[in-house]
User: Fold this.
Amino acid sequence: MTEQFKMDAPATARRLDDMAQGLVGAPLDRPEGPLKVSGTATYANEWQVEGMVHGVMVRAPGNSGRVVLANRDAVAQMPGVLAVIQDPRLLRNPAQGTANQAPIQGPDQAAYLGQLIAVVVAEEFEQARHVAQSLKVELENGEVMPVDPATAAVEPQEAKTLDQGDLDGAMAQAAFSVDVTYTTPSHSSTPMEPHASIASWDGEDLTLRGSYQMLKYNRNELSDALGIHPNRLRILSPYVGGGFGSKLGIAPEAVAAAIAAKEVGRPVSVALHRQQVYEATMRRSETTQRVRLAADAEGRLTGLGHDARVSNLPGESFAEPVLQASHFLYAGANRKMSMDLARVHRLCAGSVRAPGEAVGVTVFEGAMDELADKIGMDPVELRRRNIPEKDPESGKEFAAVSERRSTAGPRHSAGPTAPASRNGARGNG
Assistant:
């Protein structure tokens, strides 16, 4: 152990003094890089498994009603068809990241346009695709379900509500203020490798070759969906051709492949085509965000407010965390934040690269630019004047490295680090 880590280290010791330097920003080769760029990395749907057949998912034509496969018996007789499966264990939508359990299941009721409600299995991919396209899906007893978050019922997210001080009073007394509303559209994850899985059974043991990002959780999610013990399940995902959050949780094609492989007694490959990736995996919620900023004559914030409305399917707890950076970016005694979650019958919303910050920070910084313009101040200077020394809501220090007090002298801080902490947090977005 080096001297600065010892309990009796001098008060002036710095932990970084004897550590290797020059690593941050240094070029490093990705271990799988040469395989990926040379085309020799084996992705989820590229494994050549003996006896493998192909499954193609079937989509719902609307967002409400009981699903009926009207010509199921007829298409089951088409060339190469091995099974037309509508199993109650099929997923309504993917699991959220770190869910560690199955998401909502059941293909008998449509919840959104494009929901994957059945899987067709055939000897050849082209045969399965043709049958899936020929299958007539009807929705019985459907209703008009909300898809517009502006008019849908909302659920206030009480845990994400903050009301500190008097923002209305600060706005009324401010030398300069802005009150602006921004909207951002929904975003889709678009990995180069679509969602795909190959499932094969050996007795009661399942091996799934898939494209997933969180295998520890994915195994439990898949086992929960199928009703088997996790110890009987193995997921192989040596390479992931992009995910951006859409492959954090287990998705419909994995469960469909596993169910189909068990039913036909052969390995089954199921790969989503690009339209299905957009329709049935994961999206970033659209947002409506109101930002209020109050500043004194010197450009120091006296109040800030950030209110947001996002959306998700009924039953999903995830709400795009657009407010998370607004809590600590800038000082200001009077603060008010709130979030509403609109329940819409659209594709599931979940984590997409830089959840929250990507749209929340962008909007908040846009409002800061508008405030700088109104004040007539350089926008960088406006931000410099409002860097908080401590967390503006709790009063806690952002980050500091302190050595233990010794008999040699007083406790010594590693120095101011708040700006670095802020930059690091924003850089993640």
In short: The first helix runs from residue 33 to 38. The chain has ten helices and 17 strands. The mean pLDDT is 90. Residues 402 and 413 are 5 Å apart (CA to CA).
